[in-house]
Amino acid sequence: EGARVHKVKEAHQCLESGEHDDFKQDIEYILSTMKGDSSANIKCLSAISLARKCVSPEFRQFIRSEGLVSNVFKGLAEAANDQVT
């Protein structure tokens, strides 16, 4: 008899896992560019990118399920503190 493979994911599970990884990388990058020494232009572009991603119900659910809502608002507040002169 052939060898049995255990714990094989279904196709939809692979897609969800990949989507989760994409969302995680996206939010980490966006939040990292909203703080620190990033220019005001980069912070604005990151805020716009975040807003575009938040149109997706799956992305919003990811943010809630990962407990990142407060991090998102903190990042937006920090980005807003950098006033353009």
TrEMBL record:
Residues 1-85 form the WAPL domain. Belongs to the WAPL family. This is WAPL domain-containing protein. InterPro entries: ARM-like (IPR011989), WAPL (IPR039874), WAPL_C (IPR022771), WAPL_dom (IPR012502). Pfam families: WAPL. It comes from the Eukaryota.
